[in-house]
Write a structure and sequence with these properties.
mainly alpha, about 0% strand, about 110 residues, 7 helices
C-alpha cells in the first residue's frame, strides 16, 4: 500500500504560495530569455513535464528541478543567498541562548578491550 504524504495532501499555505510564486517567476524568467519549455528541459537534462510542473509550483516536483531551472536562468546564486546561515538572525539568537553542551558523550570509562 502506498504511503500518503501529508505534505502533498494539505501543505502549509505559505509553502504552497511560495512554490506557486517561484514557479511563476521561473516561467517569466524563461520567457524573458525567449526559451521554450523543451529548450530548458534539454538544458537541465529532464523532461518538459517536470519543467511545466515546476512552473505551476507543484509541490511534488523535486527541489533539484527548481534549482536546475534557477541555474538555467543564471539565478541560482540567489538561492544560496537565501539559505545563508550568516543571515539567519533568529537561528543565531536561538543558538546563543542555549547552554552549550557536547553533542556526543565522552568515551571515558568505556573499555574497548573485547
Amino acid at each position: 500500500m502506498t504511503r500518503i504524504n501529508k505534505l502533498t495532501e494539505a501543505p502549509p499555505y505559505a509553502v504552497e504560495d511560495t512554490l506557486k510564486r517561484l514557479g511563476a517567476n521561473l516561467r517569466t524568467a524563461r520567457l524573458r530569455r525567449n526559451l521554450t519549455i523543451q529548450d530548458v528541459a534539454e538544458k537541465i537534462g529532464t523532461g518538459s513535464r517536470a519543467v511545466a510542473h515546476a512552473e505551476k509550483g507543484k509541490l511534488t516536483t523535486g527541489v533539484g528541478v527548481y534549482a536546475a531551472l534557477l541555474w538555467a536562468c543564471d539565478l541560482l546564486g540567489q538561492l544560496s543567498e537565501v539559505a545563508d546561515p550568516a543571515k539567519d538572525d533568529e537561528g543565531q539568537t536561538l543558538a546563543l541562548s542555549r547552554d552549550r553542551e557536547r553533542a556526543r558523550k565522552s568515551n571515558e570509562g568505556i573499555d574497548n578491550d573485547f
